[in-house]
Design a protein that fits this description.
Layout: H1 3-22, H2 33-43, H3 51-58, H4 62-72, H5 86-93, H6 95-110, H7 122-139, H8 150-159, H9 162-170, H10 172-184, H11 189-197, H12 201-211, H13 216-224, H14 236-252, E1 262-263, H15 281-303, E2 318-319, H16 323-348
Parallel strand pairs: 1-2
C-alpha cells in the first residue's frame, strides 16, 4: 500500500469512527436513575445534601453498601472498632468522601469493562480519573474565588476520560496504536487521536455526557479542557480548572492518562488569568503541593493504586509550553530525582 492509499484509509477510518461514536451506533447503556441522582448529589454543596436520602440510594445496592463499609475500614480511615453499619461508615469517612467514592465505584461498575492493554489498564484509568476529580474539587474551593462549584469539577474530573474508555473498548487496535504513537513521539494523546481518528476522546466524552443529560457546564468542561480558550465564554473557567486538575493528576503519577508527555502548569489556562489566585506562583505552588499530598495519602485506600515512591517524570518527558519553559526544566532536571516530586514542583515555579 502506497502513502496515498494509507492517507485515504486514515481519512475513511476517521469518518467511520466519528460517525459510529458520535451518532451512538456504539451502544452505551443509559444512565440508571440512581446514577443520575448520585451525580446530581455530588454536584450539590454539602449543606444541601440530606444524608437520609443518600443512605436510601446506597442501602438497596449491596455493591455500593459494601464499598462504603470497606472504605471506612481501610488503612486510611480505620479506627479501633470495625464499622458494620452504613451510617457509622459515613460518619467515619465523612459525607463528602462517601459521596465522592460512591460515584467513583458506581461508574466503575456501570461502564463497560476495559480489557487489559499494554500500558493502559482499567485500574490505572480509574485511579487517574479519581486523582483528576479530587484535584478538581479542591480547585473549586471558595478560597480560590471561582464561580464553579467543587462538585461540578469533581464530576468533570471523574468523567473527563470516558471517551478514552469507549475508544479502548470498541476500537482497541486503533486506540493502542495512538497510545504507542503518543509515547514514541512524546505528544499529548488527544492530538494523536485527532490526527489518526479524526476526532478526540473529549469530544466523544462530551457527546456521551450530553446523552446522559448532564449539565452543559460539565459537558463543556470535558469537551474543552484540553483547550479552554475554545470553550464558550461562560464555560471557560470550568474547562480551565478541569485542565489544571488534569495536569496536577498527571504530576501525581497516580494511574495512567495515556499521554506521552507531562504538561506543565505555567502554560495552563488558569495560570494566564491575572484575576485568579492560581496565577500567582507561590499561591499556586502551595495549592498544588496540598493536593498532591492529599492524593498520595488517600490513593491506595480508595483506588488500590499507590503513587510511586519519590518517582518523578524525567526531563525528556516534561511537556512545557515553549522553548523558554523547556530550558528552565532542563536546568532543573539534575535535581529531579534527588528532591522527589515536591522538589520538582518547586523547581517549576522558580
Amino acid at each position: 500500500m502506497n502513502a496515498q492509499e494509507d492517507a485515504q484509509e486514515t481519512v475513511t477510518f476517521a469518518k467511520e469512527i466519528t460517525f459510529d461514536i458520535l451518532n451512538s451506533d456504539i451502544k452505551v447503556p443509559p444512565m440508571p436513575s440512581n446514577g443520575s441522582k448520585l451525580m446530581s448529589m455530588a454536584q450539590e454543596p454539602l449543606k444541601k445534601i440530606d444524608i437520609s436520602e443518600f443512605c436510601k440510594l446506597i442501602e438497596p445496592d449491596p455493591g455500593l453498601f459494601s464499598m462504603v463499609l470497606q472504605l471506612a475500614n481501610s488503612p486510611f480511615y480505620r479506627g479501633v472498632d470495625e464499622i458494620v453499619s452504613l451510617r457509622s461508615a459515613i460518619t467515619r469517612i465523612g459525607l463528602q468522601e462517601a459521596i465522592n467514592s460512591v460515584n467513583l465505584y458506581f461508574l466503575q461498575r456501570f461502564l463497560p469493562n476495559l480489557s487489559e492493554l499494554h500500558g493502559f489498564s482499567a485500574k490505572d484509568y480509574w485511579a487517574f480519573s479519581w486523582a483528576c476529580a479530587m484535584a478538581g474539587r479542591r480547585l473549586g474551593h471558595p478560597n480560590l474565588t471561582t464561580n464553579t462549584l467543587p462538585g461540578e469539577l469533581y464530576i468533570a474530573g471523574l468523567l473527563h476520560g470516558i471517551g478514552k474508555l469507549i475508544l479502548a473498548i470498541h476500537h482497541s487496535r486503533e486506540f493502542f496504536m495512538c497510545i504507542e504513537k503518543a509515547r514514541t513521539h512524546e505528544r499529548p494523546l488527544h492530538t494523536v487521536f485527532l490526527d489518526e481518528l479524526g476526532t478526540t476522546d473529549n469530544a466523544i466524552a462530551a457527546k456521551l455526557m450530553t446523552a446522559w443529560n448532564l449539565p452543559s457546564r460539565i459537558c463543556n468542561a470535558v469537551q474543552f479542557y484540553q483547550d479552554p480558550y475554545a470553550a464558550p465564554k461562560e464555560h471557560r473557567e470550568i474547562a480551565g480548572l478541569t485542565q489544571f486538575a488534569y495536569r496536577i493528576a498527571a504530576m501525581s503519577q497516580i494511574g495512567n492518562n495515556g499521554d506521552g508527555i507531562f504538561m506543565d502548569l505555567e502554560s495552563a489556562w488558569i495560570s494566564e488569568q491575572p484575576i485568579s489566585p492560581l496565577s500567582k506562583k507561590e499561591f499556586q505552588k502551595n495549592v498544588v503541593e496540598e493536593i498532591l499530598s492529599t492524593l498520595g495519602k488517600k490513593s491506595e485506600s480508595i483506588t488500590g493504586v499507590s503513587p510511586p515512591e519519590k518517582e518523578t517524570p524525567t526531563e525528556s518527558k516534561l511537556y512545557l509550553g515553549n522553548q523558554q519553559h523547556l530550558a528552565a526544566s532542563n536546568n532543573a532536571g539534575s535535581k529531579i530525582t534527588k528532591k522527589g516530586i515536591l522538589g520538582w514542583i518547586k523547581s517549576l515555579f522558580h
